[in-house]
Amino acid sequence: MTNKEFRDLAIKCEDGTATETERERFNQVYDFLSNQYQEWDPGLMKDEETVKGHVLELLTHDVQQFEKRKKHLSIYKYIGIAASILILGIAAFYMNRVKKVEQVAPLYANDVAPGGNKAFLVLSNGKRLALGELSNGTIARQSGIKVTKAADGQLIYTIEDHGQTRHAYEYNTIETPKGGQYEVRLPDGTVVWLNSASTLKYPVSFAAFKERKVLLKGEAYFEVAKDSKHPFTVKSDRQTVEVLGTHFNINTYPDEPSVKTTLLEGSVKVSSNNTTERTLKPGQQADLSVNGELNVINVDTELSVAWKNKQFMFESEKIETIMRMIERWYDVEVEYTGQKTEERFGGAVSRFDRVSKVLKSLESTGKVHFRIQGRKIYVSK
What we know:
Layout: H1 3-15, H2 20-36, H3 42-45, H4 48-68, H5 75-88, H6 91-104, E1 116-117, E2 120-122, E3 128-130, E4 137-142, E5 145-149, E6 155-159, H7 162-165, E7 171-176, E8 180-185, E9 191-194, E10 198-203, E11 212-223, E12 232-235, E13 239-243, E14 247-252, E15 258-265, E16 268-272, E17 277-280, E18 284-289, E19 294-298, H8 301-305, E20 311-318, H9 319-330, E21 333-336, E22 344-350, H10 355-363, E23 369-373, E24 376-380
Parallel strand pairs: 1-8, 6-8, 11-12, 21-24
Antiparallel strand pairs: 2-3, 2-7, 4-5, 5-6, 7-10, 8-9, 9-11, 10-11, 11-14, 12-13, 13-16, 14-15, 15-18, 16-17, 18-19, 20-22, 23-24
Helix pairs in contact: 1-2, 1-5, 2-6, 4-5
């Protein structure tokens, strides 16, 4: 790739006219050059001060031109790399770098697309509906309750006949597969965001019950409608969470070492199956270990609800924890080869990027490496 080709690709990527193949090609070269040449090599790059002077001169001219045309600021970093390479004027530099990039590319040749709004609704009569295949509008009526799929994909329960709902003891279940997520508005107005590989079971109507109890497997974020006469309860395998009206997240995946309940707003009481109880304040997280020990700690709540906000976000996390998130969202299998890295990772990336971008951000630390084969990701130190 010549300097002109690199520069032209940068501009096409910036203004949105690049094809997917061109964007991937540009990212490969850009990422490689950014990571490979972080220190000055006088033998390859000539005298540092002389080259810097020429680069500054060219960059100043390019920046002025782009300011006149009101181009976006992020293009400057691409011009900087292109101008720097132009000054070096070494064709071999390109050929050698591109060859190495081409050798790396096959590691991500079998890229995997992110998950999306996918779920199954199991009605009280046992009928199973694939929500992604249904048109918008009313999809079911049960015991005075209308179930609607909205244009944004949300599942909405609306009371049509109060007389019928007072005698309704029927349950629905919404299930998200790996690579799926879904949002549901319950008949009391409570909104639940369900993460991938999760299940929520709930009454078609709460009118016949003294408490609003739902059953959760996996992970969900709740915004509970206030109703002081009917407490809201979330039951999972190892704990119960009681609330009146609040915002909180529960992570109760069976393959995680502990159950985490994180409070963003209001107040909740967390009870383990061995009767230990803790009341949370906003910004606190209850951590229930496998042996039943229940601890409360202060946390950054953004980390717990990042998935709901369309992000992967982690801070000082083990690679195994991160890869479990990737497994569930991209519906892939993960296999470790050789010794696992003990490094802890932090960062943030969109959940709606392809899996290769997530892996590259981790791999840029130099502490872990990946290879994709079909829907299987191999992890090595």
